[in-house]
Amino acid sequence: MPPTASLLPEDPELLAGYRLLGRLGTGGQGVVYLAEPAGGGRVAVKVLHRASADGTGPFLAETELVRRVRPFCTAQVIDSGLAGGRPYIVSEYVEGPNLAQVIEGRGALRGPELGRLALGTMTALAAVHQAGVVHRDFKPANVLLGRDGPRVIDFGIAQVLDVTAGTADLVGTPPYMAPEQFSGEHAGPPADMFAWASTIVCAATGRPPFGTEPMPVVINRILNGEPDLGGAVELDGELRELVAACLDKDPARRPTAPQALMRLLGGEVPAREILPEGSRRAAPPPAGRPRRVVTAVSAAGVLAVAGLLAGGLLAPRLLSSGDPAPSPSLSGSAPVPAVQPTMAAASTTETALPGSDLTLRENPADEVWVSAFQDWRKHGAPGFLRDPRSGAFTADGNLKTTVVSPGGRFVASLAASRLYAPDYDRIRITDRASGAAYDIRTVDRPLITDNPSWSGGGAAGILLTVYEDLEDDRPSVGFAVVDPAARTARITRMPATGHHPYVWGPEPGTVMHRGPGGAVLVYGLDGSLRRTIPGVGDLSGGGAVTTPGGGLFLTACPDGPAATCVWDYRSGTRRARLPTGERITVHGWLSTEHLLATRKGKKVSEIVMLDLTGRAVRVLADGPAAELDKITLWYTPK
User: Per its UniProt record, what CDD domains does this chain match (predicted)?
Assistant: First the structure.
């Protein structure tokens, strides 16, 4: 049993379904309890001070955003809500001391131990910022040193406190706060970079860089003085240079978390090749290049997973019908099979997904199955490939997006390491038949490719969207078609019309793209406009937009939210409207008559097969909602 203090008489024994076992700590923000959920295990429940009357709505919105943070070196947020008028946040329980306790108990960190701390905590910040969250109270006490490495906690709590308190109080811990926080300016991701650097200095020297004297003295040093980084024995080399850059008093000159993480990993950092901090909005993830974590599933071949950062970690995203530009939940790109696969009416077998509590419910007669998956709960986001003959899953390494061709012969990978290259982008192909593995050059820097998707049957190759760079608001500027057999890539430059991916079109040799005013544009592979279909809404379903054979395609309905529309490509008429609501997310076509979707539950979520009325006719996979939200499944024709 983890060390806890006994509950006080005023503490409840049960809070929102969690049985409180003891107090882990208390402070100015509230009380942290060790608790047991209904299903067993251990979680940490933080009960904050009572919300103001006008803070309840914003609190729920902020905590929902915090729950989108990918679990890279963080304590995953599991649940949140209000109990007796007091906000609470439930997170993964991480057993181990915090960094402040370690520094106080045994002194400063050195060498590889300090390097691991820097890398792990920066990985966490990249994930936090990628979800559109700013920590705003990063400090040694908010870094837990668990058995599997450092974990950052309390990310977003400062934002939650802001909206619940309804005040303009200064939030943070002064020795780790950035200059702009004291001058009333907006504290964005650069403030976290300043706090991270201060924390690393404290870990290396035993003291924060601007001291711990009375608050006015510390604030004056932060605003006007130079940081004390200690000697070269304590902090040296590239880490010292990075820390100094993060302590720049001008927030605009500090590196972003992705840039800093690339430097820690040993990569060059061209300024225009980095994904910026944060998300443009806190809405459900859009259907383009992915950013947030959830479950990615695609009908025809692969769901592309966009980078969390250039050269660092990769993260999937959930396809959200109707969302404008790209943004895990599910990932967003898939091909259109030329063949017309079929699915059995019922499941007859159960396959446990390795390392998880998820169950695949399959039938040997199914012509589409899970060909790969990626586990974003674990450090390095390990991927797994399925053997096309035995059906067994084997590890496929970390930090890369891997998509399998229909039939399973070719495997295409976009590895994080490719982003270190300052000259050109590339995709790696493995031919399972011959065992050959090789790189195919695609575009020259600063251009970057993303959203890989195989064409129907794999015959036409892999479609990649070309972006101006990896920044979140940069437009797509064309597409590339990779021929894995010929080992060539054909690049087609297009006008920059928004940050939207290209997907395989309904006819051979075509691609589709989002147009203005809810139009869909169909292009030839030479870039010529073949057709404009007006007023149908934004393309939905990732790359699996069209049915196998191309007769129907999907959009987010133009006449209202939370609905998917099915359109006849030839006539342009609407064939069906599926009122999916908030719980169901459609990912694309599974067969000519069925769609693939996620049905989210509070405790259990499912991957389901929908008919064209929106009715779930079969469950294809299920498991704990928290797990399915963090594991990416790729469905591919066998």
Answer: STKc_PknB_like (cd14014)
Helix (H) or strand (E) holding 159: helix 157-165
Residue 604 phi, psi (nearest 5): -125, 130
Quickly list DSSP for 280-310: S-SSS--SSS--S-S----SSS-----BSST
What is the number of H-type helices and E-type strands within the chain?
Answer: 10, 33
Which of these is catalytic: 54, 79, 137, 444?
137
d(CA 498, CA 356): 38
> Measured in whole angstroms, how far is the alpha carbon of residue 633 from the centre of its chain?
14
- Residue 517, Cβ neighbours under 10 Å: how many? 7
Start-to-end Cα distance in the chain: 47
Query: Are residues 211 and 230 in contact, defined by beta-carbon separation less than 8 angstroms?
Result: no
Mean pLDDT by 10 residues, the chain (638 residues): 78 90 79 88 82 50 64 75 83 88 92 90 87 87 86 67 42 86 79 97 96 85 92 86 96 92 67 29 30 30 25 26 27 40 93 94 95 83 89 85 90 74 84 92 89 74 86 81 93 89 90 91 94 90 74 89 89 90 88 91 95 94 92 90
Q: What residue type is 211 in one-letter code?
A: G
Separation in Å, CA 390 to CA 375, 385, 387: 21, 12, 6
> pTM for this one?
0.53
Please report, for residues 39, 45, 50, 54, the alpha-carbon distance to residue 83 in angstroms, rounded to integers and kept in the order given: 20, 12, 9, 16
Contact in structure between 574 and 567 (CB atoms under 8 Å)? yes
Residue 443's region, left for phi above 0, alpha for psi from -120 to 50, else beta, is beta
Beta strands in 84-238 (DSSP E): 86-92, 143-146, 149-152
Tell me, yes or no, if 450 is annotated catalytic: no
Domains of the chain: 102-142+173-273 (1.10.510.10), 349-637 (2.130.10.10)
Angle at 594 between CA 593 and CA 598, to 5 degrees: 170
